[in-house]
Prior knowledge:
8 strands; single chain; Alpha/beta hydrolase; 11 helices; Rossmann fold; alpha/beta; hydrolase; hydrolase activity
Amino acid sequence: MPKTELSVGTIEYEDSGGYGVPVVLLHGLAQDGTVWRGVVEQLGPEFRCIVPTLPYGSHRIPLHPGAELTPHAMALLIGEFADTLKLGGDTVFVENDAGRLQQLAAERPDRVGRMVIAGCEAFDNYPPRAGGKMLVAAARIPGGIALMAHALAIRPLRRIPGTGYAIMGHKPVPDDLIDRWIEPLRRNPAARDVLVRYARGLRKTEMSEAAEGLRSYNRPALVVWGRQDRMMPPEHGRRLAELLPQGRLVELDECRTLIPLDRPHGLAEAIRTFVRETSSP
């Protein structure tokens, strides 16, 4: 995988190498870029799909000691990543699960030429319902993240309704992905510390503040949401589409939070249509 050096350390990323519009695909906490594999299969030949592995606990390259790891710092890191790769104003940023792209667009609207918010934390749903609140609670207990990671290594425990990855997917999240995502958290104390510092740096009002900032984001924006989402309320998707000056909405059936896994074809088609309709002739 190619790598780039940012202020927090070395970041790995995948690059489909297509000659079309750059599409940056951003994953959530305790995941890596493999959550986007089905979408990249659909879009990779047509667009330049760039998928960074963000330092959200499932990364494998150590960060610089003392790196700032708050949610706000991670939002700015996305902009730094795009700056380092010299991505232009036609770039499309797509985020699933987290809310850092909303913060970046509110603070640096000039950096985010176009964006797709796909089933993300927003407004007062922060940390988001059962899954997010469970992770933040674990981060506040000494050894809590390690206990959570080791519990998720037991495959039957992954299927307990309303918990962890189980609440995030309409279909069961593939075991090979979960195995990959939790391996650094099981084996590396530094990876666990990233989640602890991130959770402890969270401010409960920051997503509502970002939403206010999005009211002046007068650039093309698409909101994609799963109608069966139990962690990110579908009404939040509708609210985001309404407050964005150029917002548009796509809702998908048989789909929860992890839209790239539940409906990769539907999400890829929504992105493809959005890019075509908002590109300059």
